[in-house]
Automatic annotation (TrEMBL):
UniProt-listed GO biological process terms: cell wall organization; peptidoglycan biosynthetic process; regulation of cell shape; response to antibiotic
Protein name per the record: Undecaprenyl-diphosphatase
Subcellular location: Cell membrane
Catalysed reaction equations from the record: di-trans,octa-cis-undecaprenyl diphosphate + H2O = di-trans,octa-cis-undecaprenyl phosphate + phosphate + H(+)
Gene name, Swiss-Prot/TrEMBL: uppP
Organism: Phascolarctobacterium succinatutens YIT 12067
InterPro entries given in the database record: UppP
Topological type in the membrane: Multi-pass membrane protein
Length: 267
């Protein structure tokens, strides 16, 4: 298949799934296997399309990120602060650093993805079940999140180190379980995703940049732009969706996809 077409397909998949609770890593592994797009170029490409998705969130939350560079952005008593962001990402960054080689070597397969998709779907269902009828008690504003809640969301984020579990799925479900509404949990999830994913992408990029050639730049650029546009639309749609809808449909989709993945690769 033409590499430019692959770039468009993978860019669309990344843009659609990076910030939805369905696991972009899982989808990328599955699509990569189906398309036969694997190896060093695929590894570098995956980083570039993730950077495109990250940039879309920076645009959507540009005022909030700009505030982090002001005095108020460091004040824990004036809404979501740098300290809230750090509480949600520093623990998982440390754990991910030490487990990086193990995760890359042993957990990047369709089988492990199917397990992550299935268990992550159950977690979403459980979170919805636990908060049913308690919506009025939940924190509905991202600026009212406590440091304690931020730490607990960060702990739930450990689950996302298993490919297929989903970073946004684990943090949004975790947010519900520690007392946040879906919208507040999603907004917090998207904000902390930027520094976390940026560091992870740069780390991956530096490890694989040596395998990149000048001839690959067109493919990388296509994937980057497609991912940016699709992710931008996807995030705005998802935030609107959460205002009146539950996460159950995503849970069902994940469980079905887990079954299809296992059937396609192992039956």
């Amino acid at each position: 298949m033409d590499l430019n077409l692959i770039a468009v397909i993978v860019g669309i998949v990344e843009g659609l799934t990076e910030f939805l609770p369905v696991s972009s890593t899982g989808h990328m592994i599955i699509v990569g296997h189906v398309l036969g797009f694997e190896g060093q170029l695929a590894d570098v490409f995956d980083v570039f399309v993730q950077l495109g998705a990250i940039l879309s969130v920076v645009f959507i939350y540009k005022e909030r990120f700009a505030r982090f560079f002001t005095k108020d952005g460091w004040d824990i008593n004036k809404g979501l602060s740098v300290w809230h962001v750090a509480a949600g990402i520093v623990p998982v960054m440390l754990v991910a650093f030490f487990l990086y080689h193990y995760i890359k070597e042993y957990l990047f397969s369709p089988f492990t993805v199917a397990i992550g998709l299935f268990l992550g779907g159950l977690l979403l269902m459980f979170a919805e079940y636990r908060t049913k009828g308690r919506e009025a008690e939940l924190v509905d504003d991202v600026d009212k999140i406590s440091i304690r809640q931020a730490v607990w969301v960060g702990i739930y984020q450990f689950l996302s180190l298993w490919p297929g579990f989903s970073r946004s799925g684990s943090t949004i479900a975790g947010g519900l379980l520690v007392g946040l509404t879906r919208s507040a949990a999603a907004n917090y999830t998207f904000v902390i995703a930027v520094p976390l994913m940026f560091v992870a992408c740069i780390y991956d990029l530096l490890r694989n940049l040596q395998y990149l050639s000048a001839g690959d730049m067109q493919v990388l650029a296509i994937g980057f732009v497609v991912s940016f546009i699709v992710a931008y639309i996807s995030v705005l749609w998802f935030l609107k969706f959460l205002q009146n809808s539950k996460l159950t449909s995503f849970a069902v989709y994940r469980i079905l996809l887990a079954g299809v993945t296992y059937w396609y690769f192992y039956m």
